[in-house]
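Q: I'm writing up a methods section and want to include an example of the input and output format. Could you take the sequence below and give the corresponding predicted structure tokens, formatted cleanly so I can copy it straight into the document?
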Amino acid sequence: MQRLREDVTCSICLDVLNDPVSIECGHNFCRGCLAAHWIGVSAWGSQCPECRAPCSRDRMIPDTRLRALVEKITAPLREEMEPQGPGAQPEPGRPVQLVHLDEEGDLILDEEALSRCLEQGGVGAAPVCLVSIIGEQRRGKSFLMNCLLRRLQSPNQERMALGGFECRAGTATVTKGVWMWGQPLWVQAQGRKVAVFLVDTEGSLDLQRRMETSIKLSVFSILLSSYWIFNISSTFTRTEADYLEMFVHVAKEVGETCNLPPIQRLDLLVRDWQLSGAYGADEGQGYLKDITRDLEDSAEQPLVLGALRARGTQCYLLPHPGTRFTKSRAGTPGDMDEDFRQCLRNYVTSVVRSAGTHVRMDRAGQVLTGAQLAARIKGVSRYLKTKCYDFSSPVKMAEAFAAMRQEKNSKAVEAARREYEQFVQELDRGHQSITCCLRVKPEEMKRWLEGKQQELLKHCRGELLGEDPQKQKALMVLEQGLAGKTSQFLTAYGQRFKEKALRLGLYIGGSVLAVVGAGVVAGISPSVVIKVGVGGLVLIRRMVGRWMWA
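A: Here is the clean output for your methods example:
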């Protein structure tokens, strides 16, 4: 059985083939893995991941026979690898640290750990939902994450047993960097299986930490989130508004640079609510209206106001858990006050039920697979590491991301220009001979070139990052360059076409137009005309006549 599994294993994700496709060289891969690999390696050139043979991006052929074979061989294996929808019990998992601080205080992404989470076990080709909790340190984020974890693992179990992410009482910070539950928690939503991941982030509202570290921590938290829970204590104060403004500012820059929406889903979770005796979602929506009204009056945090006004934003109020719970070292559910336990259960249930509908998407609304998201996160991490951009303030951060976008846009435009030049060179080499040249008239050649131009411009438009004015400027420069190359080639090609037509006319004594027709239809060189004699000449002239009247 192990040998059979090796025969149906994708060499990219090292897992059994999922939606297998064949490419020109004959190798097979998962469709999602291959697409993500080509996106991560190069936006233009495509090679086989195994043999490095050049391949066309649009020639991924579904292999239905191999898919059927995979299903027969791996059905028992897949049952062991992942749960089959809601309610299935996964193998015991553990939290995995994805981002850590190095000795110099810089944040480092563990790419191998990220790949294990988002590119293997069927996740690479599946939609993913990533739930992340942001807020101050020591405000119970890991505790809430463990409640979500237990409910996802046992959806029908009312008792919320704790444990999972490290969580303990005291004032010292427990979570460092960014952690993710290492195994996907599969749910069924909208007719598809979604891999849900829980992301535990170090408190990003720490006044004692360097601003640069906080901003970079926010960057990774944003990339690893499609569902944010902004965890605050008691009330929404000016401090929370200022930090959320910075966070949304970072999200906006990350979104423009990585082609991601700034915010997909935002929950404002108010812990230890004491201003009224009512809790939950309905009371929270009333408090949310009060917050937005105050922000409108102050007009000081426009990004926060926009985020809280968004359709997907909700507010939920939780009471204090009770002194017995806060004084308990273990912090078990049995120590909670009953009203807190009931409100917490209701909120956790609502998050779990809706998680599958909040999958990670790009700005165009296209669903991203785990492998595609991992490729984007790695790309940003490498930029942050190799370019040494300045993130000492939100302004510097915005300048750094603008520089990233400009660099990536320049590469996309240059890649399009090089591909077009290569296309023109291949046309030129392929139409040097008289026969090949005369088969394609200048008008037809012009249509070929204009079609290729539009194809490249459309593809480049999808690759460019940033606001529309920036994209339009880059596209205008590219379009002018391609048009200039086209004009130059067509002028030379038209002259060569005319010269070769005249030369062929000298051999058979007919008009230039008639002889061009003979070359197009018959594909016979002048030397053949001389050898076949008069009868052959008459035959060619008859063919010319048919071509001209057609």
